[in-house]
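re: ur question from the group chat, yeah i did fold both. here u go
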Amino acid sequence: MQTLASMAKQGRSSLDKVGLTKPIDGGIIYSDVQLEGISKTNFAIDLISSSSSRRGGGGMPDIALRITVDFDKRKIERKARILDKWSTAVVSAPGFMFQRSLAFRIDIACGQTKYTITINGRDELYFNHVLQDLSQVDTISVLGEDVSIKSYETKDTSLLLGTVFPDQNFDRVADAKRMKKAIKEKDVDLKAVTDILVNRSNEQRQILKWQFKNDYKKDLDVELGKRLSGDMSDVIVGLLDTPEVYDAKCLYKAMEGLLTDDKALIGILLSRDNQRLNDIKMAYEELYKRKLLDDLNSETRGHFKHLLVSFAKAERDESNKVDFVRARRDAKAIFEAGEGQWGIDKSEINDVLISQSDAQLRATFKAYDEISPLGIEGAIEEQASGDLQEGYLAVIKTACNPAKFFAERIYQSMQGLLQDDDQLMRVVISRSEVDLLRMKTEFYNMYSKKMHDYIKEECKDDYVEVLLGIVKTI
């Protein structure tokens, strides 16, 4: 909570704090701004993209949202300004929700397609918005002749927005019986098995495995694995693994052949939090009687190895604190290590990426974009190549918008001459209870096609029916 000692000149107070919230994406409301104050006169609140004046020819910056509270007309007006044009919506507020000189609290929840405005914790208004590049909103301003803002806060109200949820009517005994019936002597009733597994959370699947073992003295995953083969076996057994065991198996598979699957190593190691990484290392050692870090050291090389091993050590800062001075300093160091010279100093970039929290990295990338015409992603694409480039971009994208990063991976898995079944399966299973719902919105925003339809059209293998059951049509 930040207390404002006074307002700036002409009743305007710019607070560079919105950038601390997680990126706004997915069509789901999960970033929140809260203001508390008192006003004697009409006032307005602006959410602004500070960099948009470059696009608008140097004029007034784009305003993603202006909320004007009009005491005289007892109305709330919403405006958006894009390239010097205003879009307006007026909402008459029955009974009104403000009174002059009385304290108010406004919560503004931001999503890809709408805002929800809550007044004093109870009255809600909904507005669609038209600003396309909403992720660039980084400033909030309050305007008024006699308005006092007592406190200001940004909150992360993000939820796990997957497509698989716990079954509220879960009956482990009944599910175990259905599984027993579905497992024939030599084959499996895949429809019955799929219907159960894609509609139960991972925790419920673990309970089901225990119940099956208790009732029939056999391991459910083993019984299914013996009767299935190839990708179908991988996806069914993968759903029955715990998340850390599944990741450990994927990492082992990525390194067991002559060539490593760098996409698998990047997608897992550079996107999991410290607790998950520690769980993966324990599962890996229990499964294979060897240490994950040892295998990474032997199977990868150079700066790419340093990047993966550093993340796998699970020692990154995970706080939400942001040091803006350090962000500008790190951005300058990255610029001078790459664009600012001939060639690229990979150690300098590595040091920043492996040590900073996601919140700090977002601030660093924003600071970098202010000094580089290429932007951070453009600079990496120009200055690095191969697996190292892909690793750097993965860190950048997962720090800023993991749902978009994994949506891109779904799309890429079915592009080119060879379909990457492992990547498709790995992303859908691992994100099913995390952010797959957000990923579906990001996918549609990028490719103008529903993820479910795209997978169905591009992948004709039998196992895809299981994945479609996870992705769902909603």
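okk and heres the other one u asked abt
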Amino acid sequence: MGGLLVAAVVCVALALRMLTALGPHSGSNKPPMYGDFEAQRHWMEITTGTPISEWYHETPMNNLSYWGLDYPPLTAYHSYACGMVANMIDPSWMALNASRGIETPGVKLFMRYTVLVADVLILVPAVVLWANVATRTLKISNVLGTAGVVAVVMLNPTLTLVDHGHFQYNNMSLGLALLSFALLVGRGGDLLASVFFVLSLCYKQMSLYFAPAIFFYLLGKSFANAPNTLAAIQRVIIIGFVVIATFALCFFPFYNQLPQVLHRIFPIARGLFEDKVASFWCVSDPFLKLRFKYPLEQLLQMSFGTTLAALLPACLYMMRHPTKKAFLYTLLISALSFFAFSFQVHEKSILLPLLPVLMIQDPFPTAFFSLIASFSIFPLMQKDELELQYYVWMAASALLFPKLLSFNRWSLVEQMLYVLTVCGIAAIHIAIITIPPPTHLPHLYELGIAATGFLGVIIIFLHAHYKLWNSAPQVTP
């Protein structure tokens, strides 16, 4: 019965993704650059139409100023595989340079299905594995048991709206990361978990948000569970070898062009932040104007220092007390620290701290942060003309998540704060629809949404520290 209920939840989640995909995508009919949909399609065009030695380089056939490849090699390989399938169906979809901006019904349908296939092959198995680990090892549950844990992750609006509305493949990197976390918390083995996490990093560099927590957890476990120091060092060396070997395999075709690949993956010149994102740097920019006071190199140093200061205490505490619960809260703190304080953060990066929130499933924080994360991407949804999909997902999740997470068992303060959050978000949306912003403050609403998102990030950041410091200091193998 439990397995059938899980299967039913997964089928509903996939069906809702397909309905969401019926709407517009990013950059639809907006030349000359279009949007992320065209970026992903263009990478398929470039990887299938040019030699691998040119994928990350400016050439007559690869104009890097037009959506040049700027993700790690695993994304390039995935683009190549999808592009090869597309060429077998209709070569015009990926015709080198001639297919720029193509938006025929056929190519749209193909691209949408590639995201759905990634869900089925990577994200769904990872979520189901995590749900089993969570319910059996950590005793995490809700009103529907394992199926409910799956539902909270799969029916979260933010990932669906970004991947199947806006258009991206965050399901790939997050799915690989979730497989790693499930193996680390369960009994699947640290070595295989390390492989999956490196694959996540090699798909999307933003998985670095999780790296400090994983490093300190594996280090703490190695020394806490080893019979002596030598055995612990040996264990660390073995894990390090697996990590380096996995990186080497992924980057091997680019061994003679690593500087260029890394330059493309980490584009420092783009600046401190883009658009109105719920980070400290964006929210404080109207008042502090740091971007105009300091050179780029100094801003990079400042963001690195604040990010490190925000995450390091939790990582060091967890290293001394490497419990499974402590690992999950440190994972969340690390991701929140990167999102709030690191360099070159996008609004879509809210998906990274959202993942551990959905994994832990503390009732109120999960429902609360799910709302905040979805709300923070509204300007993106508005830009993509996905307001209808956004409003439907927000309303449904605002009602569904408290039911799944036992709203009647929350404290009165938690219930009131959740209701106030829902009402506040609704009020802001009504204002956006009915009251134009002042002409001298055209981005007032976007900045207000970013500030609200940042406040939510800080609330969950503090809550995660409270839960971490009150976690039982016992080591679990």
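fwiw on the second one: The radius of gyration is 22 Å. The chain is about 70% helix and 0% strand. idk if thats what u expected
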